[in-house]
Amino acid sequence: MQTTKELIAIRLKQLRKSRGLTQEKLAELIGRDTKHISKLEIAGSYPSIETLDRIANVLNVEIKEFFNFDGLKDKNYIKEEFTKLINYSDEKHLQILYKIHKDLIN
């Protein structure tokens, strides 16, 4: 399972890219050097609250968005959750899940 530092790094990169910013441009906008942004995005260090606040302002998001990991769960976690879903579903729901899955891959 991924660490919190790794999840923050992934989320930061995701948010930066969604705004069309390079690491260089983000660094410039928050008054840090590019190496600092790079280190944050490879989970080399935790960002300070001050840095998160600056980045949040530039990206026009709330700080809590850096901790929204719902879409970042690793493959094993997702498999475990699907297994639970399948195991606790009745036949009707299993058929619906199967149809959704089949439609998605076709």
Helix content, binned percent: 55-70%
- Separation of the first and last Cα atoms: 30 Å
Provide mean pLDDT, rounded: 90
CATH class of the largest domain: Mainly Alpha
Q: What's the helix-strand series?
A: HHHHHH
* CATH T-level fold name of the largest domain: 434 Repressor (Amino-terminal Domain)
Number of self-contained structural domains: 2
- The number of helical elements comes to 6
Q: Overall 3D geometry?
A: elongated
Uncertain spans: none
CATH architecture of the largest domain: Orthogonal Bundle
Tell me about the largest β-sheet.
none
Q: Helices and strands: which structural class?
A: mainly alpha
Radius of gyration: 18 Å
Beta content comes to under 5%
Task: Please describe what this structure looks like.
This protein is mostly helical and 106 residues long. It folds into two domains: 4-70, 434 Repressor (Amino-terminal Domain), CATH 1.10.260.40; 73-105. The chain contains six helices and no strands. It has helices spanning 4-18, 23-30, 34-41, 49-59, 75-87, 91-105. The longest helix is centred in the N-terminal third of the chain and has 15 residues, at 4-18. It is elongated. The mean pLDDT is 90.
Topology:
Layout: H1 4-18, H2 23-30, H3 34-41, H4 49-59, H5 75-87, H6 91-105
Helix pairs in contact: 2-3
Brief rundown of the structure:
This protein is mainly alpha-helical.
Task: Quickly list its features.
mainly alpha; 106 residues; single chain; 0% strand; 434 Repressor (Amino-terminal Domain); 2 domains; elongated
